[in-house]
Amino acid sequence: MGTTSNTDRLHFVLIPWLAPGHMLPMIDIACLLAEHGTTVTVVTTPANASRIGPTIDRVADSGLPVCFVSLRFPAVEAGLPEGCESVDAIPSSDLMIDFFNAGKLLKHPLTDHLCGCRPAPSCVITGTHHAWADDVALEFGVPCLVFRGYSCFSLLSVENLHLYKTHEHVPSATEPFVLPGLPHRVEIKRCQLPRHIERAHRFAEMFREIRDAESSSDGIVVNSFDELEVGYGERLAKATGKKVWNIGPVSLVCNQGRQDIARREDKASVDEAQCSRWLDSWSPESVIYVSFGSMGSFAPSQLMELGSGLLASGRPFVWVIKVGRTWTEETQTWMSERVEGNSKCLLIKGWAPQVRILSHPAVGGFVTHCGWNSTLEGVCAGVPMITWPLFAEQFLNEKLIVEVLAIGVSLGVEKPTEWGKLVEEDVVVVTKGELAKAVEILMDKGEQGEERRKRAKALKEKAMRAMEDAGSSHLNMERLIQYVLVSRESYHTYHPHHTPPPQRKLCVGYRKGGPMHGFGFKELSLSWSLAIDEGWMCSGGTK
Q1: What is the pLDDT of residues 127-166, one digit of tens each?
Q2: Which of 44, 97, 265, 282 lies 20 to 30 angstroms, CA to CA, from 107?
Q3: Residue 433 placed within a domain
């Protein structure tokens, strides 16, 4: 999409929350904005930049005006292990507050960098946990929009619970109650709600700070599309009093007319050609794909029970697992003998090319933790799901998948795990029989199964159309950009004497085809390390 005289003066600054499931969709949003003619800066850290290197390279090769700024993450200063720069790298949830506070220290070096940028920032889009990002937007006199990585359904559910406090009047954490203010009747248990709703939670102060920042933001950006969550975006806008833009599924920005689907993610731990050949050997819609995201992990007992259930189903399956520190010799032996040597199983240790796998014609079902990115990727592939939520808002997503959209089968998990990690040695949440039965129901060729598949395929078509030039998400992206244009003009009309923060002397560098290089600079006795990743040629000096 060509630039215009208006949009090419806009500069969006994107600050993803430091977790893979948040960074990748934000990078896709950056590409979408750049395709609409704007300049985009994506803020990251060295370890995260290295981790998503293939994605960064893909964006650089596209020629889009997207710049990756890598700011040194002060892990050690905040009491974290060296190199702990992502949520899934935190060794214990007890360190979450330290990680949150470390993120705050990125504000000043980022502001210093942005002072030298031309065009100057026009809008900040921030991940939800960066409560300090609103201050950056205020300093430049630009709107601050929030991207939480949730569905409209989950966002509205949480907002209404904050408003009505229905959950606080339920006597038992395991007693179902009706979520208030939704167009569908949906029941949930208090123990299944996101932890940030609890007033007495140990992270309550952090959650309060985050919510205060969200309340002062100018709008909400959602990775969804109007046709998927009919009416929920409008209700969310009414409940929050903010503008809401559904601009997804943003993962499709990488897939339409391009050959880089497999390069969206970190390096795959399995040869992609081998994976494709294995899938090619099976008939259409016969394979089950199993993955629990970047945060999900299980104790050996549950892991072996899960594998036993997949084997008992009699279906071929692709199983993505994280090799945990809790693995015993028994676990390794069991996996080697029962799973790795089984011709009906393709075992992938580590990261997998999920988008490519789900899009393969052989895949007919998806066992998922109900993370929103994975849910959308399942929708975009037209694949029905078996739901096994772990934590955060995933139980809400399960309700959307199973009860509202009717494209999934629930495993009936009752309680969340701690940060997605089921590590208690003796706990088995889902038995092999329960999983095998769910697979049988999902893959059944009877009337219910066919109707479920029909609905899933219809949503796939709607997702594709939403991202086309006249589609709802495409139009919403244009409305978002127009909002920023009008906001900038209005601000300078009413604040004609406003000047941006003073320009500072910066030394930045450009990397192409080699390791990232950091260039130090000192400002107000604080030394920081800054690097510009490939995608934009920059030079030292006052800009």
Answers
A1: 989 999 999 999 999 999 999 999 999 999 999 999 999 9
A2: 265
A3: yes
- pLDDT greater than 80 at residue 528: no
pLDDT of res. 492: 57
pLDDT tens per residue, range 215-245: 999 999 999 999 999 999 999 999 999 999 9
User: What torsion, rounded to 10 degrees, do the Cα atoms 371, 372, 373, 378 define?
Assistant: 90
Domain count, the chain: 2
Task: Give me the DSSP letters along 335-382.
Answer: IIIIIIT-TTEEEEES---HHHHHHSTTEEEEEE---HHHHHHHHHHT
Do residues 51 and 497 touch, judged by C-beta distance below 8 A? no
Q: Between β-strands 287-291 and 317-321, what pairing exists: parallel, antiparallel or unpaired?
A: parallel
Scored b (16 or more CB within 10 A) or e, 263-273 reads bbbbebebeee
| Distance from the first to the final alpha carbon of the chain | 28
> Any bridge partners for residue 317, and if so which?
288, 345
Asked whether residue 242 falls in the same domain as residue 282, the answer is: no
Q: Read off the pLDDT of residues 485-499 as tens digits, 9 standing for 90 and up.
A: 999 877 655 544 455
Asked if 485 and 248 touch (Cβ cutoff 8 Å), the reply is: no
Q: What is d(CA 105, CA 267) in angstroms, rounded to the nearest whole number?
A: 30
Long-range Cβ contact pairs of 466-472 (< 8 A, separation 24 or more) = 466/225, 466/226, 466/227, 466/248, 466/249, 467/225, 467/248, 467/249, 467/252, 467/253, 467/256, 471/225, 472/225, 472/226, 472/227, 472/246
Q: Which residues pair with 288 in a beta bridge?
A: 317, 365
Residue 104: exposed, middle, or buried by beta-carbon count in 10 A (0-12, 13-18, 19+)?
middle
The domain of 479 spans 7-252+469-532
3-state secondary structure of 252: helix
What the block records as the tokens of 441 is 């129901």
Q: How many CB atoms lie within 10 A of CB 4?
A: 14
3-class DSSP assignment, residue 30: helix
The yes-or-no verdict on residue 537 having pLDDT over 80 is no
Q: What is the CA radius of gyration of the chain?
A: 23
Kindly state whether residues 419 and 478 are assigned to the same domain: no
What gap in Å lies between CA 241 and CA 535, rounded to an integer?
A: 36
Residues 216, 294 within the same domain: no
Look up the CATH number of the domain holding residue 318.
3.40.50.2000
